[in-house]
Amino acid sequence: SGKTDLPLLAWKFFRLMKSNSYDVVHTHLFEANLVGISAAYFARVPKRIVTRHHSDFHHVYYKSAVKYDKFVNRLATDIVAISKNVESILLEMENVPAAKIKLIHHGIDIHDYLPGAVSEQRIDAIKKKYALVPNSGPVVGAISRFIELKGLQYLIPAFEQFLINCPEAVLFLANAKGDYTGEVHKLLKHIPTKNYRLVPFENDITALYKVFDCFVHVPITPTVEAFGQIYLEALASMIPSVFTLSGVAPEFAVDKQNCFVVPFKDSIAIFDTISYVIQNKNNLETIKQNGFNVVRDHFDIHVKISKLEQLYS
User: What digits encode the pLDDT tens for the residues 211-269?
Assistant: First the structure.
């Protein structure tokens, strides 16, 4: 329940690992990495794997935490980088030996996104649940925690401008929670409540994507996003998408080929691109298909599983 619990937890893990003689310990996320890899090191577990889920977040926002990242890096025998962005931060900012880093992308089960995998009944249920029928206009969707680095402060003014020409449009903000909530609500004061939805959590995420006419994900720097699973989910759902090139996006996103790329922190470009997508939504089949293909070909979950199995053995 807090930092004071970590030493006792590490001791319990140490005893567990020692008594069971584990061959491999694999940890995820900050506290688990710190506690689990420490315990595994002192228990002499031969293979100690960390998956690094954040990029330069500590370097930019919590500099005092960088020493803990470096501590974990030293104790781990292998570090899984989930994108080339994370790999470069480990190499260039934290001086991790290249031999210790394994690039293993996140993935999705493409079968969940194949044509017909999401029934019309599920899509209709989402529309009904969030009052998107019968007379709502085009839906601009975003799935981002309410934190500064996700760029909602540039999306919301762009949507406000878009409403002038399309007064029935709806801005759908999912995963609507985080320490930037106050700022988001200030920005939304200029938009009628009928024109936006704030949804903290939706379980049927694959059906949710299908109600969007345009998807927007615009983190504010190239490195602030470690991966960005929603890049994959949106393209696999064949939703025309507006991206900034953060996280894993530079590895596959090509403007006007499989998505639409806008500059960082640019509300005008976001507005222009949303307008173009909505006006031309019936003429974007090639872009949507290309987006699906790149996810299918490069980010299948079974590729990740195979690479992890190789790492464990």
Answer: 999 999 999 999 999 999 999 999 999 999 999 999 999 999 999 999 999 999 999 99
| HEC sequence for 217-248 | ECCCCCCCCCCCHHHHHHHHCCCCEEECCCCC
What are the φ and ψ backbone dihedral angles of 131, each rounded to 5 degrees?
Answer: 55, 50
Specify the DSSP class assigned to residue 267: H
Supply the pTM of this predicted model.
0.93
Distances in whole angstroms, Cα of residue 277 to Cα of each of 95, 162, 205, 266: 42, 12, 22, 17
Residues of the chain with pLDDT under 70: 134-135
Angle of helix 66-75 relative to helix 30-42, nearest 10 degrees, comes to 40
**What are the residues facing 142 on neighbouring strands?**
173
Return d(Cα 62, Cα 305) in angstroms, integer: 32
**Helices within 249-312 (DSSP H only):** 267-279, 285-298, 301-312
Q: Determine the length of the chain.
A: 313
